[in-house]
């Protein structure tokens, strides 16, 4: 127990302070839910803060209608609860949201919604984390779990002339369906999984998409002979070194998909697994877009040099094309540097400096989940580690001989 002078106590516990009898979890996406469920299993109370008005707001509010999980469901389930047996191998967006809501209900996870974290810092004098939220409410506790993840904020590149473009400009996080673009020419900036799938969706709804491919990219078939390519890679990694598995993946892609360089899709020199391991660049799993590229329904164009007047777009090869709309499929980034203060555990991009599988625990009661660049499986693995570690500390510190009468039922114990 930390004893503070009276004036220090007065400054620490302001009129709108909440003492948290357990860890403070920031973020109620899949990562935060996974930690909360595992903590409950360990008997550790917590409070979970969420800036939106629902769980998994990225999935619920910032994903397009046709989205499906790109990996088989067994690689995407959260700890302690598999997907229902009747779910398909690649669950839809709606099915995944239902799964998360059932998960929260089963483990009685009740976040504090519409609670945006403005800042979080460690008070060395008291040995406590102080988390200031919207409405000037401050949560104070021994442990902080950062679960805001890799996709907290949309990324839109700063391209000359963009502000003067006369057509509709949006990020893929605001895109729902190609129906709104029927009959229009649309420039999709980005060729990752989202860029490919949005281009396909636009094509299916009668739009005329052109996809910007600025850099080399690995495109793999989603399945090979009815077997998930990702599952095959995981299996091979048990027996073979990464560089050999990479070569096998590239050869399989060439056999199944052919020479993609003719379509304007160059492969990087490094293998797909190596790029994922070192730079977090996920290979694209083809869900049907390549067939439309070959048919000429989806054009492949180089990088955008600048936006001109009206609906003009100048490309890196000198061509000037006209588009009715632009959709940026340029990804997301962590927002941790915007609110977490006084710690060097995260780098300037908002990722733990220590690589997976050791980047889940920092100093002074700081934890991180959802920053592994390994999707839901990586987040689940870290959630289990965090809960086990906190469970051990909690049981040690709440032994009757040390802290008689400790409260296990409520995580928010006092509102001052």
From TrEMBL:
<keyword id="KW-0503">Monooxygenase</keyword>
<dbReference type="GO" id="GO:0009851">
    <property type="term" value="P:auxin biosynthetic process"/>
</dbReference>
<dbReference type="Pfam" id="PF00743">
    <property type="entry name" value="FMO-like"/>
</dbReference>
<dbReference type="InterPro" id="IPR050982">
    <property type="entry name" value="Auxin_biosynth/cation_transpt"/>
</dbReference>
<dbReference type="InterPro" id="IPR036188">
    <property type="entry name" value="FAD/NAD-bd_sf"/>
</dbReference>
<dbReference type="GO" id="GO:0103075">
    <property type="term" value="F:indole-3-pyruvate monooxygenase activity"/>
</dbReference>
<keyword id="KW-0285">Flavoprotein</keyword>
<comment type="similarity">
    <text>Belongs to the FMO family.</text>
</comment>
<protein>
    <recommendedName>
        <fullName>Flavin-containing monooxygenase</fullName>
        <ecNumber>1.-.-.-</ecNumber>
    </recommendedName>
</protein>
<keyword id="KW-0274">FAD</keyword>
<dbReference type="InterPro" id="IPR020946">
    <property type="entry name" value="Flavin_mOase-like"/>
</dbReference>
<keyword id="KW-0560">Oxidoreductase</keyword>
<keyword id="KW-0521">NADP</keyword>
